[in-house]
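Progress note, sequence design subtask.
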């Protein structure tokens, strides 16, 4: 939780980044604008991931500026200055005097941002900036229409995690694993989905972390809606419950899914589907080998899922037809309609490509990458677009773990129970 703030590593990131940009240039990295929840009440503030990546600054109202001339570079962090009258309401700020301890060359007040930027830009031939994040920066940039997006250079760095980053992600994965295990133990039919959510998120808060995305807690048919998060139904005897939830530590995310029977025992039909998804997940993890193409994990999970659907008589065709050939767009996609995983890091769906619908080349796996493996099968009783076998109607099952790629093979960072035996042993036993 309280790992030392690695000043040197942030300086190295800035240095490596400055090697990737043209000489005589200036880079402006904004943090996120606070967003309004209601009238003068805001959503909890979350800093921009590029800001976190380059200098670890978590407060709102900040801009990091890196300028480079010949081979020399320097960084300046513009922050919101101290102001007692405002701090009485909003909290004590680090301010310019505190920001000098951050891993930057200079700290300045954002009050002087435009003035200082304008003079710096005059001495530069190229401007890099991220638009659409800060209204104030977008307004300033409207006078400088030719800015270049620095994100591709940063994304290729962010794809490979340092040991400092892996330590944070391991802590986030541990907390979320514990949270899922506690939620299994406290589960009873008749509980509201929101109560299961509170067991998970209570653990996140207790451990000093925050949710990395809105928790998905869906019982019965709700588990067949991929991004269900209203979490407002009452669980029923015999339901499966799907919980997809993760937390973050200093911005570094975990993302875990477990599915369990709310009453503690899987029905035979539930076991049949669960075993397919679990086998697919384990095969997906086995395919997380350095040097492999990104698509190899999806090929591995898809093959298990398609064969499983054939074996249960849900699909009546040869494997190749069920898979849809190399495109993997065959009828197994009626019941497994999402990708097998995504990169994980400062963003829960992290940068670096590999997502369904991405137009970039699929990445090659390298040591230091962290990704999720999360196959699923969904038989929404409410669906009218594909045949839903009666025996499996109302079941949604997904299993998701966080995986670190190493030279020696995959390391699974998350650890909550996932075999049928382990799950049946702990669901409903209470907190002890
Ligand atoms: Mn995920």
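Output:
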């Amino acid at each position: 939780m309280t790992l030392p703030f690695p000043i040197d590593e942030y300086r190295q990131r800035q240095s490596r980044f400055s090697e990737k940009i043209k000489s005589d240039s200036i880079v402006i990295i904004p943090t996120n604008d606070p967003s309004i929840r209601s009238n003068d009440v805001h959503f909890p503030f979350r800093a921009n991931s590029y800001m976190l990546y380059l200098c670890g600054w978590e407060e709102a109202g900040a801009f990091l500026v890196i300028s480079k001339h010949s081979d020399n570079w320097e960084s300046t962090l513009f922050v919101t200055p101290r102001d007692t009258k405002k701090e009485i309401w909003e909290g004590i700020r680090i301010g310019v005097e505190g920001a000098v301890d951050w891993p930057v060359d200079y700290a300045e007040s954002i009050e002087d941002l435009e003035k200082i930027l304008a003079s710096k830009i005059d001495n530069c031939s190229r401007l890099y900036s991220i638009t659409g994040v800060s209204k104030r920066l977008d307004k300033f940039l409207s006078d400088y229409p030719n800015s270049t997006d620095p994100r591709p250079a940063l994304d290729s760095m962010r794809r490979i995690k340092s040991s400092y980053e892996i330590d944070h992600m391991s802590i986030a994965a541990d907390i979320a694993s514990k949270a899922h295990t506690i939620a299994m133990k406290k589960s009873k039919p008749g509980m509201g989905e929101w109560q299961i959510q509170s067991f998970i998120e209570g653990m996140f808060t207790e451990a000093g972390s925050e949710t990395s995305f809105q928790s998905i807690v869906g019982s019965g048919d709700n588990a067949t809606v991929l991004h269900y998060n209203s979490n407002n139904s009452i669980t029923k005897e015999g339901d499966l419950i799907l919980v997809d939830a993760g937390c973050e530590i200093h911005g570094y995310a975990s993302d875990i899914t477990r599915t369990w029977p709310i009453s503690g025992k899987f029905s035979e039909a539930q076991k049949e589907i669960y075993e397919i998804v679990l086998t697919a997940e384990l095969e997906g993890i086995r395919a997380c080998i350095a040097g492999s193409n990104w698509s190899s994990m999806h090929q591995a999970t898809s093959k298990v899922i398609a064969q499983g659907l054939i074996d249960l008589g849900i699909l009546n065709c040869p494997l190749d037809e069920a898979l849809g050939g190399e495109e993997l767009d065959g009828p197994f996609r009626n019941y497994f309609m999402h990708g097998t995983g995504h990169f994980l890091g400062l963003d829960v769906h992290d940068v670096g490509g590999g997502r369904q619908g991405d137009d970039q080349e699929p990445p090659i796996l390298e040591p230091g990458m962290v990704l999720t493996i999360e196959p699923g099968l969904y038989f929404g009783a409410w669906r009218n677009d594909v045949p839903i076998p009666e025996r499996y109607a109302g079941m949604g099952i997904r299993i998701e773990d966080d995986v670190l790629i190493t030279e020696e093979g995959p390391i699974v960072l998350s650890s909550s129970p996932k075999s049928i035996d382990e799950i049946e042993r702990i669901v409903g036993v209470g907190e002890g």
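The chain has a mean pLDDT of 95. Work on this subtask will continue into the next period as scheduled.
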